[in-house]
Amino acid sequence: MQKSDIVTVSLKELYEKNPETGSFHDGCLIATNHNIYKQDSLQKDNPMTLFYYPCRINAIAAVVCEKGKVLFTSNLKRYVLQENTLILNMANTIVKVDEIEDSILHILAFDENFLKDIHIDIQNLVPQFLHILENPCITLLPEETADLQQIFRLIEEESRNLSGKAYEKEILHGYISVVLYKICAVLKRVKQMQETASVGTVKNRGDEYFRNFMIHLQQHYCEERSLGYYASLLHITPKYLTMLIKQVSGRSAAEWIDDFVILE
Questions:
Q1: What pLDDT does residue 63 have?
Q2: Region 93-113: what's the mean pLDDT?
Q3: Rounded to whole angstroms, how far apart are CA atoms 177 and 171?
Q4: Phi-psi group of 26: left, alpha or beta (phi > 0 → left; psi -120 to 50 → alpha; rest → beta)
């Protein structure tokens, strides 16, 4: 693999890289990676080798760090996943692991077709997920960490014994629904804290436009690369959009578009 390549990885490929670390059922991967060291992660059979170069994950993933630290880049921005931290990875996000220490990571990932089969109120949950595009790393309360670790372990244990059983698919869907609602409860708590902290302050128009611009860009950059297109979605002129994005991020809107195009 060349360093400039961006490979799209499926959940099945991740599972087949090291099936001993978890289980895979009909578009859903459940795994726990124990004691991952930077030097060990370069071993051929370790799935982490895939992420030492820019890699597009064709799935929605939730990762809870129980121990250690992982430094990674997600869509050009650097983050730290550490103890008591949850990361949410949306489908087709480009990820690269920069550094990893002795870690224990609980991983739950599923493709979009799997999500469509789960009977939950997606429209009600979407608002909770939107703000993670700005920062996919969320600091958990101790009780939230313990709660998520417990349900992740339960799903992992149950999933190893589901194959061939009656209502296999329905049971797994039920567990995933529980996890999604628990994660949304965490996101709602974080959102409420942010809103409480901002009471009495004037909302920054530039920050709001930047947030919405990045949401639209992540959704449409493969098909639309025109500054005018994104300005029209925000109901402002391209010139005004460029000025606002520059003020907030220090870079122009065109530069952000170019960076996403380069990744593609």
A1: 92
A2: 86
A3: 10
A4: left
